[in-house]
Amino acid sequence: MRPPIQPVAPRIDDPIELLLACHDKVRRFATLALKLRDHLAQTGPDPQAQEAAQSILRYFEMAAPLHHQDEELDLFPALRALNQPTLTACIDELDAEHAELGVLWGALQPWLRDTVAGLPTGTPPQVDEFAQRYTAHAQREEVEVYPSASQLTPEQVKRISAAMVVRRTSNGTHSPD
Questions:
Q1: Digits of tens for pLDDT over the chain (177 positions)?
Q2: Which of 26, 56, 61, 112 has the fewest CB atoms within 10 Å, i.e. the most exposed one?
Q3: Concatenated DSSP letters for the chain?
């Protein structure tokens, strides 16, 4: 029997690597929300469902907001400063999507909290849209925005990385996304 493959942790000095690792988790937890919906329809809020709901809540309440701040406060402004109109327009659209994703997330939170509490509840209709939009949003950032980070200076990259680390260590969450 082969030993399990250990995930490679992203380097803290590479902000894009950290953001990509977060996107992997976004996809995993968005998919888990779909699986939870199906599981609840079959078995109700059993311990397995409660644990899954708690994991989704923890990720999207702690790590996802930090990820959005990484982009909105550090990466996106640095990339906007490159003065590339197409890139800036894309960033503006993705930045606006953060608020839309927040609204979808808000619709899922009561359902997840009820599930954690073991309460039977109806599934919000936004689960599919939440999972699809979050996944598509991450993919678009990876394809249309993140490659432009290669145009940033080493000093800019260091500043972005440092801000990401501070954000995760100064608020007590110590969340790696």
A1: 444 444 444 556 789 999 999 999 999 999 999 999 999 999 999 999 999 999 999 999 999 999 999 999 999 999 999 999 999 999 999 999 999 999 999 999 999 999 999 998 889 999 999 999 999 999 999 999 999 999 999 999 999 999 999 998 875 444 445
A2: 61
A3: -PPPPPPPPPPTT-HHHHHHHHHHHHHHHHHHHHHHHHHHHHH-S-HHHHHHHHHHHHIIIIIHHHHHHIIIIIIHHHHHTT--HHHHHHHHHHHHHHHHHHHHHHHHHHHHHHHHTT---PPPTTHHHHHHHHHHHHHHIIIIIGGGGGGS-HHHHHHHHHHHHHHHHSSS-----
Q: What is the pTM of this model?
A: 0.86
Structure token digits, residue 38: 């199906």
